[in-house]
Automatic annotation (TrEMBL), chains A, B:
The gene is thrA,hom. NADPH binds at residue 103. Its cofactor is a metal cation. This is Homoserine dehydrogenase. GO terms for molecular function: homoserine dehydrogenase activity; NADP binding. It holds the Pfam family ACT. CDD domains: ACT_HSDH-Hom. It is an enzyme of class 1 (oxidoreductase). One of its GO terms (biological process) is threonine biosynthetic process. The active site is at residue 203. InterPro entries: ACT-like_dom_sf (IPR045865), ACT_dom (IPR002912), Asp/hSer_DH_NAD-bd (IPR005106), HDH (IPR016204), HDH_cat (IPR001342), HDH_CS (IPR019811), NAD(P)-bd_dom_sf (IPR036291). NADP(+) binds at residues 9-16.
């Protein structure tokens, strides 16, 4: 087997995990012995590190590795967007394949990066960028390619799933649980990207491009986080037989426009029936359900983040490149490369159809449920259940779960309900599957 | 993209599924258009078929397809063992790669088949042979290769899972449920291979070879089926918080002999805690949990059989071969091929350690639980719970669940318990995880 010589850029959690696998005394497949680290580029060579490195692997300048004719593959695990993008593009232009764990860069600059790779006859592999250790990118590029993918729905952010699991199990409020997650290292100091849903939106954007074959306009993904979740909603959901999870959703829509495939893509906190396979996915675990024809429904479940799982995905990508090195380099492997093969567009938010959960605070007066029901009926919104749950000081909390309905009709109903004199506040709104 | 010309041998459920995908009007990746069917070999050309075929694709003699220089890949979906083995070997010797859905042949003749493929510079791909549509063979050969696999445990036979799910949900007995499964087409007329566990043993043998890298002696896999399961055991298990599933289990053992890796492999009906991810896998679905280092635990879940899912796996294997056709054929792709890289052996049954469930029918006399407890204690068998569950006509049923213990110590205890004058019968014994 030909040696595969890699340059690693970044030596944080993932970088250290990669080093650990390659130097491991574990009982690994012999093919792993043929991966050789040429250098590791870091910001500060002299920083004290808990991982002891062999030889003088650390260098300061990542561009040295890109220029080094000895290096076959660049492994970008530094994070961030602008410099990482530059490093990835320059590596590809230097005809070096790239492995990256950087979902933010791929979600934003995927188009430019995929086409630069193709133009230069090399590859960019991204298994570690989505759902840590779960094999999901490779199945989309290979095993599932014999199918028409219809829908993907998943729990693909570990931080928010940890927080929601804790809130649900311990009836704790959001702020306190976020602080705990930060203390335990499951949430970052600035948790915005996770708790506001942007990280999940990055990932569902990458997965949708691979599954449906067209460029996704990342900024059009309707995104809500968990930072508005009230413990009351979790309690009510549990009472009614649901769990609340932050879901990423992507579905093929029947109506296409000018040969461009319509997709319904959103990220948001959602009620899931307790019997649903995704309902038992707890803590920092991730899972993704894929509905495909003729395959049916499969679920891939596992650790969504962490040094070991993410590094394992990076190293398996390196193995894919190593095996491609032995081949006639003039031909590109169509299952390893990725190119868009069609146009896609995200349908507008008011065209999205889904089930909804609504919590309304109103006066505890006998006719109010009827009035709310009338408004939904008039607007053609079919209701699955409407329950009055909590009442105190003349006030009542009413929870409504609708059947699937377009956002347009639902928003119109909400406006009319809000205008009822008995209604004080629409306290929260969530999706349901 | 180079055309990939295939010859299909067999046109039963899976063969028809393949034809349907390749002629599908679904929205599939354009790469699928480059697969061309040269011919389909069947026993009887004139048999009436519900699938209408284009042109004159049907032929009588499978060996004609093997000899045809126009054919790149042979797809063996005829089933059976002896003729299928001959067809696979002759195809490989004619330097044609093979895709097969035939677990019985691979479990028995894998060694001969893998080495013939390697010797002739071609591949044999088997995704459809295990767990129908679930991507499991490819992840073991690719994504998971950066890990040390420690354990695999799965529900990998759809027929028995359908029967056990029905028995559990409807408190129906085994014989009646088997008949229903046969009527619905989920069990064959001769159900032996499924209900006695041999099909699951075939599959865990194939998976273990891929995961651990050594040849498995298929006949040494300790195999029990579900044909002895009493509805009483399912009721008691449910009462105690468990489901009963037919599990296939394969684990790396700490003690190796002469550099040969020791493996603990068995197939048997087992109690699973209801909170365990495998407990909710119902009906004809399959799922497999893989515990690996540094990855952690992942689960792959989906339809374990059926025309569409199995055909989707066959076609994705064909795509893998198609992409290899464009390459320099002198080099073999180490991730697509499979060779044993070490020795493995299965530990003897009395060395296996596991948790056990035992149902004992005895006289309803006050001292009997104490006597049973004493025997286990004396033999160093630690008990998780011992419960007297049903009593009638002076008889009692006692259910014991042990902690993990070697089969040797457990069997010795059983013998002594059987000899107690109060004990009438050890009615059943199951594994627990």
């Amino acid at each position: 087997m030909q040696k595969c010589k890699i340059g690693i850029i970044g030596f944080g959690t993932v970088g250290k995990g990669i080093y650990k696998i390659l130097k491991s005394k574990n009982d690994l497949h012999p093919i792993l012995k043929d991966i050789e680290i040429v250098g590791i580029a870091v910001k500060n060579i002299n920083k004290k590190r808990d991982t002891k490195l062999e030889n003088n692997l650390l260098i300061n300048d990542p561009y040295e590795l890109i220029k080094d004719p000895n290096v076959d593959v660049i492994v970008e695990v530094m994070g961030g967007t602008d410099i990482a993008r530059d490093i990835i593009l320059k590596s590809l232009k230097a005809r070096k394949s790239v492995v990256t764990a950087n979902k933010a860069v791929i979600a934003r600059y995927g188009n430019e990066i995929y086409s630069t790779a193709a133009k230069n006859g090399v590859y960019v592999l991204t298994e570690a960028a989505v759902c840590g250790g779960i094999p999901i990118i490779e199945p989309l590029k290979r095993s599932l390619k014999s199918n028409q993918i219809n829908k993907m729905v998943g729990i693909i952010n570990g931080t928010t799933n940890f927080i929601l699991t804790k809130m649900s199990n311990e009836k704790a409020d959001y702020e306190a649980t976020l602080k705990l997650a930060q203390k335990l290292g499951f949430a970052e100091f600035d948790p915005t990207a996770d708790v506001e849903g942007h990280d999940a939106a990055d990932k569902i954007s990458i997965l949708s491009e691979l599954a449906f074959g067209g460029k996704i306009n990342r900024v059009s993904i309707s995104t809500e986080g968990i930072n508005q979740i009230d413990i009351k909603d979790i309690e009510y959901a549990n009472k009614l037989g649901f769990e609340i999870k932050l879901l990423a959703f992507s579905e093929r829509n029947a109506i296409n426009i000018n040969d461009s495939l319509s997709l319904n893509i959103w990220v948001g906190p959602s009620l899931i029936p307790k019997s649903h396979p995704l309902a038992t996915v707890d803590g920092v675990n991730n899972a993704i359900l894929i509905d495909a024809d003729p395959l049916g429904e499969i679920m891939l479940y596992g650790p969504g983040a962490g040094s070991g799982p993410t590094a394992a995905s990076v190293v398996s990508d390196i193995l894919n490149l190593q095996s491609s090195l032995t081949k006639d380099t003039k031909s590109i492997d169509p299952l390893l490369s990725f190119n868009f093969w069609r146009d896609c567009h995200i349908i507008e938010s008011n065209q999205i159809s889904k089930k909804n959960y609504l919590r309304i605070i109103c006066l505890d007066s006998p006719g109010v449920i009827g009035k709310i029901g009338d408004i939904f009926g008039k607007n053609d919104v079919s209701i699955e259940s409407i329950v009055q749950l909590d009442a105190s000081q003349n006030k009542a909390e009413i929870v409504v779960i609708t059947h699937e309905v377009s956002n347009g009709k639902f928003e119109k109903s909400k406006k009319e309900i809000n205008a009822l004199s008995e209604v004080e506040l629409i306290a929260s709104q969530l999706s349901c599957i």
